[in-house]
Design brief:
The strands form three sheets. Strands 1, 2, 3, 8, 9, 10, 11, 12, 13 and 14 form a ten-stranded mixed beta sheet that branches. Strands 4-7 form a two-stranded antiparallel ribbon. A two-stranded antiparallel ribbon has the order 5-6. Helix 1 crosses helix 9. The protein is built from twelve helices and 14 strands. By secondary structure, it is an alpha+beta fold. It has two domains: 2-45 and 181-208 and 216-368, no CATH class; 63-161, no CATH class. Strand 2 and strand 3 form a beta hairpin.
Length: 371
């Protein structure tokens, strides 16, 4: 079972996602310059939304960190262990894996770990406390006992039923058996129309500047754009269920959290300067047995507003029209339901199951999944 989300979101002037020169990210599509928000930015916003709005318990969320030693040490201190001894034992335990290298007590790259995984590593160390603390300061080659500890640590790195790890996956080059195939795909958002960068020239005055002096004390420019974005993502239900160890209740919670965050999470870039807090105007969800259709090519020819046109309405019409073209050519035999809500009225929705709220859209998706 595949759940797809197609979202149209029109932002006021903003710089939501910057490149290395602080310019709003862009791309070429269909031969025209488009505004873009990277998939990494969107996923980061969603993970923050999970936590901020408590959509999922903290124990079922992950952290991205090089500080595994610090996290496990803190857990052991909470168990009543002395901090210095706990830190040394943690380092010994990680070294017992043999593949995960430390540099100044940090892993060489970011690890995406569930909270339960970190707790699991701490439990392994506590269970092998005497062995590990006896080995502190001993530089001899690790023996069979340490191999057992290493295997136990690896077993603890099992995904921890963290929904963000399960959804977005992780790659661990040194520990391929602990990798997770992502259960979802998130596309870069691109504007439905061509876009050019604009510049906001600003000055700042010194409030205590003597009257004898004139002029601004600071000046500069901020780049921005304004765009109606098409956003696409999908979830593979079977892969998500597998990643969450067959826990159907948690899988359902993960899907609901994903949909809410996909609709409500907004990137934070330069928001204090622009306050581009604009919710989506159109959300179209598809539940299907197989296959995936991105509708990006609905906008390969940029939407042209014209003299009195409406960018959002024309983008919605273009999206639905393109869907109908795909459905006519490829058929809809694997599609179980098509649910949508819209802030804009349209005559294009006759083949869609229209609902009046996000909560009702989530409820209809849940029914289609047998929930």
């Amino acid at each position: 079972m595949i759940i797809e989300l197609h979202v149209l979101q029109n932002f006021a002037p903003a710089n939501l996602n910057r490149d290395d020169t602080n310019s709003p990210k862009e791309c070429m599509f269909g031969g025209y310059r488009r505004a873009r928000i990277s998939s990494q930015c969107i996923k980061h916003s969603m993970r923050n939304y999970f936590k901020k709005n408590e959509l999922v318990e903290v124990d079922n969320l992950g952290v991205r960190t090089k500080g595994l030693v610090n996290e496990v040490t803190a857990q052991l201190v909470a168990f009543g262990k002395a901090e210095e001894e706990a830190r040394s034992a943690t380092i010994k335990a990680i070294e017992s894996i043999g593949k995960l290298k430390l540099d100044k007590e940090k892993t060489q790259y970011l690890l995406f770990l569930g909270r339960k995984e970190i707790n699991g590593v701490a439990s392994v160390i506590e269970s092998n406390w005497q062995l590990l603390t006896t080995a502190i300061g001993n530089d001899k080659k690790l023996d069979k006992q340490f191999e057992t500890v290493g295997k136990a640590v690896l077993n603890a790195l099992n995904g921890g039923k963290a929904i963000d790890v399960a959804l977005f996956g992780r790659m661990l080059a040194d520990l391929p058996d602990q990798e997770r195939d992502a259960a979802c795909q998130v596309a870069h958002a691109i504007s439905t129309h061509k876009v050019g960068i604009e510049f906001d020239y600003y000055t700042a005055m010194d409030d205590l500047q003597p009257k004898s002096e004139s002029g601004a004390s600071m000046m500069g420019t901020i780049e921005f754009d304004s765009a109606c974005f098409y956003r696409y993502s999908n979830i593979d239900y079977a892969q998500l269920l597998k990643n969450l160890d067959g826990d159907q209740e948690l899988t359902g919670k993960a899907i609901r959290a994903f949909i809410r965050a996909s609709v409500n999470a907004i990137p934070t870039g330069k928001q204090n300067s622009f306050a581009a807090q604009n919710p989506p105007s159109f959300v179209f969800a598809v539940v299907r047995g197989s296959g995936t259709w991105s509708l990006t090519n609905a906008f390969s020819r940029p939407i042209w507003v014209g003299e009195n046109g409406d960018l959002v309405s024309k983008s919605i019409s273009g999206l639905v029209e393109y869907w109908n073209k795909l459905a006519k050519v490829y058929g809809e035999k694997d599609i179980q339901s098509k649910i949508a809500f819209s802030l804009e009225p349209s005559n294009d929705f006759k083949d869609l199951h229209m609902v009046d709220s996000l909560e009702n859209l989530i409820g209809e998706i849940n029914k289609s999944l047998g929930g």
